[in-house]
GDSL esterase/lipase (Senna tora), 344 residues
Amino acid sequence: MVLCTLLLLLLQSSLLAAAAKVPAVIVFGDSSVDAGNNNFIPTIARSNFEPYGRDFEGGRPTGRFSNGKIPTDFICEAMGIKEYVPAYLDPKYNISDFATGVTFASAATGYDNATSDSVIPLWKQLEYYKEYQKKLGTYLGEARANQTISEALHMMSLGTNDFLENYYAFPGRSSRYTPREYQSFLAGIAENFIRELYGLGARKISLGGLPPMGCLPLERTTNIVGGNECVPSYNTIALEFNDKLKKMTINLNKELPGMKLVFSNPYFILLHIIRKPSLYGFQSASVACCATGMFEMGYACSRGNMFSCSDASKYVFWDSFHPTEKTNSIVANYVVNNVLSQFL
Ligand SMILES: *[C@@H]1O[C@H](CO)[C@@H](O)[C@H](O)[C@H]1NC(C)=O
Ligand SMILES: *[C@@H]1O[C@H](CO)[C@@H](O)[C@H](O)[C@H]1NC(C)=O
Ligand SMILES: *[C@@H]1O[C@H](CO)[C@@H](O)[C@H](O)[C@H]1NC(C)=O
């Protein structure tokens, strides 16, 4: 009897393990997870030139805002799928590649339409996703495509630009909303987006939280009165917003049958790296590797700049807004081990 129960349990858990497999990683968001979609739209928010990608396979700039891989590449690899998540708009790839992973993300975008004027807004990423589902249906057949969608890990990573490049940069939103109201406005958009994904068959969704955005080198550089320390008010906004998102995930999981929505929070691990860089083998967390490391990103972080560091793995940040590959790998590992492991 005991043996039978044991066998049954073993059988059940191996069935569960098989059923829990993730066949594809599907990504929405901003530059934290864009693998080059912006190369194919008219925008200056780009990074498809050296020294971006100098530690990527083949030393190749791809449009990823880092010296190498971004977190979703590491996560896709950890899921046992493949090494990179390709960009949907990149003509080098087609549905046979996208069937196991695709990113619709666009650097400089946000939840708010007003953040994403010149790039791919979140609603447009959803339109691309619907188009993708049709292609997937043709490629795999409807039944397998449906199954893939329901088992795929859908990831969302955005929101920093709404605050730093919109709310606190221009008067429009800040004259209309208090910071708290703006947080609620954005969280409402995130919630609707998740409901849309659910309606389209997605069941495994990771909602990414904000990083300690007051500690991005650009914000520290401009925090002159604060002695170039992290900007506490921006970190507080990130904490508050993350709290809202976390509560929302709890409610949606209760409400939507079969939903497995998780909140992937990069805040504390990143803050720990920034506060104790040497524990992780870094030498600098306050300035970035590229150029002077204080202001530059995108076109300002260009190959001709003689100030760029020689070993990016000594730096937490690659440019003034984006982590190095090494930081991305640590954060991705942390999220996989602590949150996404339930999908493995
Ligand atoms: C995708 O591209 C590869 C070559 O890059 C080609 O062999 C394959 O037939 C294409 N698949 C589809 C479904 O278009
Ligand atoms: C953003 O723009 C799209 C397309 O115009 C629209 O459908 C959507 O309602 C807008 N979102 C918000 C929150 O205003
Ligand atoms: C696939 O999913 C769609 C939308 O949920 C549904 O209408 C369709 O019947 C499904 N097809 C199969 C073969 O399961």
